[in-house]
Amino acid sequence: LEEVLLQDFTDPDGSGVEAGRAFYDDVDDYNNYGVGVTGIVYPDGESVPNLGSYGVEVRVDSAADWNGVNAKRITVNAIHGTQSFSLSGYRTQDPAP
Q1: pLDDT-based confidence at 46, cuts 50/70/90?
Q2: 69 and 93 in contact (C-beta within 8 Å)?
């Protein structure tokens, strides 16, 4: 969740979805990341030790306008077998300078 929340609200280079996670530069790039994949990996693709049987799925949804501030809800589901755990957070659009 932290990795996604640290990204830009909008695509800084306007290229759309990037070629791979190592190049993700905005929260929308992560939408549907990890769906149907088992094994937790670092952004460079290297496996995280001891998490090979876990999965992670990311969803990004536009949230309601918060008093004139655009926001997106990021939900990360961690999955192990039949068990899952979800965390959600919100990324707001930075105000114009």
Answers
A1: very high
A2: yes
